[in-house]
Write a structure and sequence with these properties.
Strand content: 25-35%
CATH topology: Methylamine Dehydrogenase, Chain H
Structural class: mainly beta
InterPro entries: Dynein_IC, WD40/YVTN_repeat-like_dom_sf, WD40_repeat_dom_sf, WD40_rpt
Number of strands: 30
Shape: flat
Distance between the termini: 158 Å
Protein name: WDR34 protein
CATH class: Mainly Beta
Keywords: Cytoplasm, Repeat, WD repeat
Largest sheet: 4 strands, antiparallel
Number of helices: 5
GO molecular function: dynein heavy chain binding; dynein light chain binding
Strand order of the largest sheet: 1-30-29-28
Organism: Nothocercus nigrocapillus
Length: about 550
């Protein structure tokens, strides 16, 4: 409402203003005011809402159920003519049973006493496990570059752990001399992703490698004998430059190839040290020791000479005017470290000793005098002896060893007599290698190939497993190693894993065979059987 204006007469305008101000702030009723919200109206138009909510809660359902067991019995129905009473023992049945036992008592006691004295089942052991009668090829290992050059596997060896197998490549039919380079290859069979055509290590060698042997306790060391007559040692853990020791070409080095054998020997003067013994067709057996500058130097040596062996042995005239006999194989006794057996080109096996003092005729320029080790000559084969293998088991009666050669025969010999205990012709094939089983005293393996003409020329290679317990005249199993005209030159049992046998052939392949339990489990009377086999002839 408009403020009241009151006139006070002629008193002037100041009084009029004061009255109007007082009326302006006077108490009075007023109307209501409504102010609309523009923010809510705009949000409602956009259909927006604001709220506060926790994240979704994950839920899952799982059911657990327990199995229940019930026992149920099944019984045939009782026949109509049978009553419960008939199943009960009665006084009459007991009397009849007692009468029967009294009648047969003497006969039963007699038979039981007879069985107690019988030896029909001595040594019989019940074997509740399934027997594996098959021989399987687990791996066929090869190096394509060597096969492309038609190189042959000349030797195989397992390392100290039994996980790595090595092979040497070369040529056994090259004639008088060879300058062709070759290889040493290794495969770790326990390594994942094994490629049989891709060795874990390949060592290039300037001369054919004729034989090799892993160190008996250091898994990475391997020694090799070369066609050039040298002896070398490689460390397979050094992939860049594995060659660590070598003899070099000196006056002491072999003048013929180191064909078939190289051995690690304990050093009697230095504990945990080893020396190397090499044998060659030049008639010498040389012992090498390590020098700090990476050289192998001659420690002692032996030579086979005609004066110690039968005249019928084929002799070879050497340059220095003395007659000597070519060594083709060698094996040490497992019980006497001084005794070893060698096979020679003339077909004989000879027992030798490292303790002899008889000197052999000396070759000019040799740094040490050589000794003549032969003590006994055994009955000959019909051709060169390519392999000998001393038994790792038998000592109670005599030391035994096996020999084989080009006549296809295997001779089982005692070191106490010249004649063989057993002579087995496995076939009309050359036999290049024989090895005694490390776990079965009556089992050995032989590598063969049929042929004629040259010393190492043969065909159709086989690995033959022989078990004296099954037969004394024929092989228990003949394994076809090669399909074509190629011999098997070498083989080696795995001492750590005796079910494995490696064999190398002329095609350049190494096959690893898994033997059946028949060839790996020793029988209870097997050692006695071998003793009887030896004693029957030596008595």
């Amino acid at each position: 409402a408009a403020p009241a204006r009151v006139a006070m007469g002629t008193g002037g305008c100041g009084s009029t203003v004061e009255v109007a101000a007082a009326a302006m702030f006077a108490d009075g009723p007023g109307g209501s005011a409504d102010v609309g919200s523009l923010w809510r109206r705009a949000r409602s138009a956009r259909c927006e809402a604001k709220s506060c909510q926790t994240g979704p809660i994950a839920t899952a359902e799982a059911a657990v159920q327990m199995g229940t067991k019930r026992e149920a019995g099944v019984q045939t129905e009782q026949g109509a003519g049978v009553t419960q009473g008939s199943l009960q023992e009665g006084p009459a049945d007991t009397a009849r049973l007692l009468s029967f036992l009294q009648r047969v008592e003497d006969a039963v006691i007699k038979e039981l006493s007879k069985n107690c004295r019988s030896h029909a089942f001595d040594g019989f052991e019940v074997n509740w496990t399934d027997q594996n009668e098959t021989v399987l090829c687990l791996h066929t290992l090869s190096y394509p570059e060597a096969q492309h050059r038609k190189l042959q596997v000349t030797d195989v060896s397992w390392n100290a752990t039994g996980a790595v197998v090595a092979c040497s490549y070369g040529r056994l039919d090259d004639g008088d001399w060879s300058t062709e380079k070759s290889y040493v290859c290794t495969w770790n069979l326990d390594r994942r992703g094994l490629n049989p055509q891709c060795p874990n290590l390949v060592v290039d060698v300037p001369s054919s490698v004729m034989c090799l042997a892993f160190h008996p306790s250091q898994p990475s060391l391997i020694a090799g004998g070369l066609f050039s007559g040298e002896v070398v040692v490689w460390d397979t853990s050094r992939t860049e430059d594995p060659l660590i020791l070598r003899t070099g070409m000196t006056d002491d080095t072999h003048t013929d190839p180191v064909y078939q054998q190289i051995n690690w020997l304990p050093d009697g003067k230095h504990r945990n040290h080893f020396q190397l013994l090499s044998a060659s067709t030049d008639g010498k057996m040389l012992v090498w020791r390590e020098e700090r500058d990476g050289r192998l130097v001659l420690a002692e040596g032996f030579a086979l000479v005609a004066q110690q062996i039968p005249r019928s042995i084929r002799l070879k005239k050497l340059a220095w005017g003395e007659t000597a006999v070519g060594v083709t194989s060698l094996s040490f006794s497992h019980f006497d470290p001084c005794v070893f057996v060698v096979g020679v080109e003339g077909g004989f096996a000879l027992q030798c000793s490292m303790a002899v003092e008889t000197e052999a005729p000396q070759r000019p320029g040799s740094s040490l005098p050589l000794r003549a080790p032969a003590e006994l000559a055994f009955s000959p084969h019909g051709g060169p002896v390519y392999s000998v293998s001393c038994s790792p088991f038998h000592r109670q009666v005599v030391n035994l060893f096996l020999s084989c050669g080009t006549d296809g025969h295997v001779h089982l010999h005692s070191m106490l007599q010249a004649q063989p205990l057993v002579s087995v012709q496995l076939s009309k094939k050359y036999l290049f290698c024989v090895r005694w089983s490390p776990v079965r005293p009556l089992v050995f393996a032989a590598a063969s190939g049929e042929g004629k003409c040259d010393m190492y020329l043969c065909f159709k290679g086989e690995v033959q497993l022989f078990d004296f317990e099954k037969s004394a005249q024929k092989a228990a199993v003949s394994i076809k190693q090669t399909l074509g005209e190629s011999p098997v030159y070498c083989l080696e049992f795995n001492v750590k894993q005796p079910q494995l046998l490696a064999a190398g052939d002329a095609t350049g392949a190494v096959k690893v065979w898994q033997l059946s339990s028949d060839f790996t489990e020793q029988g209870a009377r097997e050692m006695k059987h071998l003793e009887q086999l030896a004693s029957e002839v030596t008595d």
